[in-house]
From TrEMBL:
Residues annotated as transmembrane: none
Organism phylogeny: Bacteria, Pseudomonadati, Pseudomonadota, Alphaproteobacteria, Rhodobacterales
Domain Fumarylacetoacetase-like C-terminal intervals: 28-228
PANTHER family, sorted: ACYLPYRUVASE, FLUTATHIONE S-TRANSFERASE
Pfam families: FAA_hydrolase
Keyword line: Isomerase, Metal-binding, Plasmid
Originating species: Pacificitalea manganoxidans
Name assigned to this protein: 5-carboxymethyl-2-hydroxymuconate isomerase
GO molecular function: acetylpyruvate hydrolase activity; isomerase activity; metal ion binding
Alphabetical list of InterPro entries matching this protein: Fumarylacetoacetase-like_C, Fumarylacetoacetase_C_sf
């Protein structure tokens, strides 16, 4: 067996509701502007754009319940999302077969250094500096589809200090879960451990240290994330 010249990086493992074993994360794909109202609030026409994806890093997923306010930004935004965990992989997956790949679902946040993302957009640069920073994706326990079913509708909300800021429904997604999986599989070889953040409703906005974000997706419960 081959040795490594340095210590192996740790695998990111996420808790699964009702299980002792962890879900290992391989890649994290995030779809942009997947709710029409959010696309409009970001200055885009959702009827004219094909889907697009960016990536976060596996260890950006953080189940701790805390979000450290990141450096080099004065405009950090919340975006509540449902995460989709894949238990199987494939290439060129047909839409009708796509849900067979899904292991389960989780509450998640796509935290964004909006000011840095804005600079990157203007300069035609990648978004990682605004999206893929440390602990930028708070996430809840994974709920296996075998227990909660497949979620294609349900209320999605985010509150900051008890005030509702985001509200939508999973059925408002422009690209549904099987369509996202099928589309991604045309460009990437999907594999077990891949995670897809499925987009956010309108109402994104800034947070400050000391705030408490409460996110919920019908069928997955709710969770609090403290900004520290």
């Amino acid at each position: 067996m081959s040795e490594y010249v340095i210590d192996k990086p740790e695998i990111t493992g996420l808790p699964v509701a009702g299980e002792d074993a962890l879900f290992p994360v391989r890649r994290v794909y995030c779809i942009g502007r997947n709710y029409a109202a959010h696309a409009i609030e970001m200055g885009h026409d959702p009827d004219r754009e094909p889907p697009f994806f960016f990536q976060k890093n596996p260890n950006n997923l953080d189940p701790s319940g805390e979000f450290p306010y990141p450096p080099h930004s004065e405009d950090v935004h919340y975006e509540v999302e449902m995460a989709v965990m894949l238990g199987k992989g494939g290439v060129n997956v047909a839409i009708d077969d796509a849900m067979d790949l899904v292991y389960g679902y989780a509450l998640s946040l796509d935290m964004t250094r909006r000011d840095l993302q804005g600079v990157a957009k203007k300069m035609g640069r990648p978004w990682e500096i605004g999206k893929a920073f440390e602990r930028s994706a708070p996430i809840g326990p994974i709920h296996p589809a075998s227990k909660v079913g497949h979620l294609d509708s349900g209320r999605v909300t985010l509150e900051v200090n008890g005030e509702v800021k985001q509200e939508g429904d999973l059925n408002q997604m422009i690209w549904k879960v099987p369509e996202m999986i099928s589309y991604l599989s045309e460009y990437f070889e999907l594999a077990p451990g891949d995670v897809i953040l499925s987009g956010t409703p309108s109402g994104v906005g800034p947070i400050q240290k000391g705030d408490t974000m409460t996110i919920s997706v019908e069928g997955l419960g709710s969770m609090d994330v403290k900004v520290v």
